[in-house]
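User: Can you help me understand a structure? I only have the sequence.
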Amino acid sequence: MIYEQKTLPITKLVSNSGQIAGVPKNPRTIKDARFNALKKSIEDAPEMLQLRELIVVPFGDKFVTICGNMRLSAARDLGMKSMPCKILAEDTPAEKMREYAMKDNIAFGQDDIDLILAEWDSEELAEWGFELPEEEVQSSKGGSPYDTPKEEWESQVEKFIVPPFSVLDSRQGYWVERKHLWQNILGDDALGQSRENTLAAADSLVNNCTKGVSLFDPVLAEILCKWYSRAGDKIIDPFAGDTRKGEIFARCGRKFFGIELRQEQVDQNNKALKGKNLPVEYACDSGVNIAQYVQAKEANMLFSCPPYFDLEVYSDDERDASNAESYEDFLAIIEQAFTAAIKQLQPNSFGVVVIGDVRDKKGYYQPIAADIIRIFNKVGMGLYNEHIYVEQLGTAPLRVNNAFKNRKCVKTHQNVLVFHNGGGKIADKFPDINIETSIYNG
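Assistant: Let's start by predicting it. Here is the structure, written out as tokens:
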């Protein structure tokens, strides 16, 4: 055996400063933020020190640390009294110690970042001190995947929360950080799932909008309502789903009214909102009847994430667009509901629809986004902006191999269609944006 295993007093351990002939001093350094992350890692899981001991060698009445100098420094800073060690034989050749010191710090494998983002939560990774590449998740305190000076990028985030570009990238650090802030405020979703399940499901807006539980990205809801409505405005939705969007709008200083076809969902919504004293209201009905609940010109904004045709069927109700027998029948329900809602908007107002095309049974895309543009144009709302919402990869890396056997790419974006109904200069109604970044928490 070339070593013995023993727990040694930390006073007997010294860092490698080159005191052993033929063994260069430890080449590793660590910055404050990384050092603090290492200390937190040790505090959170001290048993890891037992699983990966320091490698040391006797030197006089001390032991020089060949492998694990950073851990030793962190443990000493934490006030630990002893450390698990593997003690090399005193006559271990210097060339072997050089080899151990370098190989201990070499990462031979390569991280599959897509798989890491799919299987681990970015907040956990940050807590554990794992650094994602800059192009994957940017620090919320600056940095850009584009050739933009850091100061300019930071100013855009400070002013708008998310830079108002045509591409909205939910993988960026500023987005991820704010999303967790919202999730801490919102807690469990309207159907009573645990927060852990909620976070696990929230990586894809497709899942959010098409599964029985609507887990709409809270940051997307926040920025769109703040960009395209004003404090005190009333937002309506003929395809409301659960409480997530409505609660976010209310916490952003808006009022919300939504139509939801399923009575059980409305009951869950009312239960989730009980005691929160938020200006959010739901009615159980078909979205085509929204004019029975909202007066003409009463609303200031339309915001909706309607069914994605039959990608997920919500109910067996014949009025349910997701239960339509054909794509044409689906469009007829969508058109009736949106036409009715648009008529309740004041002049110089925006309508926002989050949608994505879905494949038919033959694998060809149904052009839902294009058809919604046609529907809105027909009743006098022109397409004013189109954002592409880029989702976190979620399970996409796990699905791509099977999907691409039939040359189907895995969709990781959605269309955010922004319409305007005319009736005045937008700049006159909507003042210069300098968004209040705090979130009302009730």
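Now, to help you interpret it: The first helix runs from residue 32 to 44. DSSP finds 17 helices and 15 strands in the chain. Let me know which part you'd like to focus on.
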